[in-house]
Amino acid sequence: MRYDAFIGQVQAVAALPNRGSAARATSAVLRTLAERLPDGTADHLFAQLPADLVAEIEGPQVPRRGGGKRHKGGPAAERFDLPTFSGRVAWRGRVSDDTATRYVSTVFEVLDAAVAPELMDKVADALPRDIGQLLPAARIDDPLD
């Protein structure tokens, strides 16, 4: 999926007034997601996204052991729950926590359509249950069902 299509999908699904709002929402969610995901999963996710989207959200990269680059999140995943995740998205996007949660759900939906299903399974497995509940219903693996 190309950058314009990705941002357009976020704008449409979230019913945002303009592309700038959609780009800010996307950036806020993906930056926060990169902080939460394990190193390899974040790298694989970013490798499947449009290069111009990745360049926009990466900011400065941090060198890591082995000579590669780590996407903004550091050498290992940070462990945090949905309130922290939404709080970071809200701060980055300059929106309320409720709006941030809607952004997370929207970007997850667009990501699910944009990257390989196996990768989204890894993303789902790496997230705690409360954040994972914002993934599209087909990605939620509920062992209680």
How would you portray this structure in words?
With about 140 residues, this protein is an all-alpha fold. The chain has one domain: Globin-like (Orthogonal Bundle), CATH 1.10.490. It has eight helices and two strands. The protein has helices spanning about 5-15, 20-35, 40-45, 50-60, 80-95, 95-115, 115-125, 130; strands at about 60-65, 70. It has a two-stranded antiparallel ribbon. Strand 1 (about 60-65) and strand 2 (about 70) form a beta hairpin. Helix 2 crosses helix 4. The longest helix has 18 residues, at about 20-35. It is globular.
For this entry, give a set of tags:
single chain; 145 residues; mainly alpha; Globin-like; two-stranded antiparallel sheet; 2 strands; 63% helix; globular
Summed up:
Helix content is 63%, strand content 3%.
Q: What layout of secondary structure does this protein have?
A:
Blueprint: H1 3-14, H2 19-36, H3 39-47, H4 51-58, E1 62-63, E2 69-70, H5 82-93, H6 97-114, H7 117-126, H8 129-132
Antiparallel strand pairs: 1-2
For the termini, the CA-CA separation is 33 Å
- CATH topology value: Globin-like
Rg measurement, Å: 14 Å
Proportion of residues in helical segments: 55-70%
Shape: globular
Let me know the average pLDDT.
86
> How many DSSP helices?
8
| Name given to the CATH homologous superfamily | Uncharacterized conserved protein DUF2267
Report the portion of residues in β strands.
under 5%
Query: Which residues sit in consecutive blocks of at least 5 with pLDDT less than 50?
Result: 62-71
Q: Strand order across the biggest sheet?
A: 1-2
Estimated structural class: mainly alpha
Q: Summarize the main sheet.
A: 2 strands, antiparallel
In the CATH classification, which architecture applies?
Answer: Orthogonal Bundle
Task: List how many beta strands DSSP finds.
Answer: 2
